[in-house]
Amino acid sequence: GYRLPHLVGVFPYEFKVKHCLSSPGLNTSIFCQEAKERAKRATKFAPLSGTKKVLAYSTHVVIMPAAAIYSIFLPLKIGAAWLYVGLPIFALSLVMTVMISINFASTPVDKPVTKGFYRISRHPIYLSAALMYLGIGIACASWVLLLCAILWIVFFHIVIPAEERFLIDQYGDAYRDYMNKTPMWIGIPKS
Fold first, then answer.
1. Angle between the 143-171 and 50-58 helix axes, to the nearest 10 degrees?
2. How far apart (Å, rounded) are the C-alpha atoms in residues 59 and 45?
3. What is the 8-class DSSP label of residue 190?
4. If you write DSSP's letter for every residue of 47-110 in order, what string do you get?
5. Does Repeat count among this protein's keywords (predicted)?
6. Residue 160 needs a FRET pair 20 to 30 A away by CA distance; which of 95, 118, 130, 181 works?
7. How many whole angstroms separate alpha carbon 78 and alpha carbon 107?
């Protein structure tokens, strides 16, 4: 990897970036040599079964990547009002995703992530992904991508209960306390 000089000193350890991936439908991640174990937990999924598993995986593995590919070919109409509404939403989602990745990678593996955007939402990764599709859908005036944003939100509602049980099993009372203080989607922390 190479060093990003403007990031040195921001993190509790020296940060070397191997690769940074940014695309709708894929979680943007910063994989750090010093934080491999921390980054690995991003690939763990809560156990699902039956119809929920089929729906969740088909949404995540088929629909979202297809929407990402579709979005590449959508025209942007300069001067159209929806472009100027959608682009800031999309830009916000990108900033959120980078900050979320940094929060995730810089939190010890044995503790739940509770800083940064995780202070205002228990599921900021899902929130940023929904905003990404929503922003692109509005900017391109694409009902297909707006429908994908709705499907993505449905996917979240299927996965979140299992994910939160998984996180309670993994972190115990620390995660329960976090759930009591932090809204599921977005809001002001309760304490």
1. 130
2. 14
3. -
4. ---HHHHHHHHHIIIIIHHHHHHHHHTPPP-TT-HHHHHHHHHHHHHHHHHHHHHHHHHTS-TT
5. no
6. 95
7. 41
Assign 63 to helix, strand or coil.
helix
Give the model confidence (pLDDT) of 108-156 as tens digits.
Answer: 989 999 999 999 999 998 899 889 989 989 998 888 889 888 888 888 8
In Å, what is the CA distance from 158 to each residue of 80, 128, 139, 187? 35, 17, 27, 21
The pLDDT, as a whole number, for residue 134 is: 92
Helix axes 124-139, 81-105, angle to 10 degrees: 160
Residue 20 main-chain phi, psi, to 5 deg: -125, 120
Report in angstroms the alpha-carbon separations of 124 from 22, 49, 188. Answer: 16, 24, 13
pTM flag (> 0.85): no
Q: For the segment 39-70, what is each residue's pLDDT rounded down to a tens digit?
A: 555 555 566 667 766 666 666 677 777 777 87
The letter for the amino acid at 40 is: K
Domains of the chain with bracketed CATH = 2-181 (1.20.120)
